[in-house]
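User: Teach me something about this protein's shape.
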Amino acid sequence: MDAPLDLLAVGPHRDDVELLCGGTIARQVALGQRVGILDLTAGEMGTRGSAALRAEEAARAAQVLGVAVRRNLELPDAAIENTPATRERLARVIRELRPQVVIAPAPRGRHPDHRVASELVRDACFLAGLAKLDPSTAPHRPRKVCYAIAYREDAVKPTFVVDITDTFEQKLEAIRCYDSQFDGATQAGEVYPNGEPLDDLVRHQAAHYGALIRRRYGEPFLTDETMRVDDLRTLDVATF
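Assistant: First, the predicted structure itself:
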């Protein structure tokens, strides 16, 4: 059995995690952590390219980010549902990979799959900890679920922002692996168009989040739980 994952990033479609949290994934890998990606669908409903081509692109992007494992749950694209069957299917993979932290899509999203996947991931993480789900496998419940809310400022401010200054170019390289989706594109996933090339949109957004923590580039996350502080002197990001 492979070693447990420190972090598992879950995206509805191949390319979602690269756009939302690719810099964070690369950063955690650089810290020596075992990181995985789970795509929920093959992206067969995408307007551009094909599922087979996106699989090849996803494999290249995984190499760029340095992840230990990349899997696909093979749920239907544009038709993800949070049902007992899909929850159990995802929970079994979580029990197998045993991540300590799971990154899920934002609770709100432009694509219906993104919104549904957010709820599905949280519910499956809980279900994975139930011993009677499958007595032949050991239960495992991740310690933390975080939501990647890049490009989404219609709900709440981020709970925290990860400094991806050192891994931003690696994130862009991973995104560029998806030529079939993004070559010449000005919009992707939750990235709304403003007429600029996609690379510039991603860079400007990352710079915006980085500015919130007084760094060059950042990626924002949301948690349901309040963050604990043990020593006020360790609080980062100066007021003035």
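Now, about its shape. DSSP finds seven helices and seven strands in the chain. The first strand starts at residue 7 and ends at 11. If you'd like, I can walk through any region in more detail.
User: That's plenty for now, thanks!
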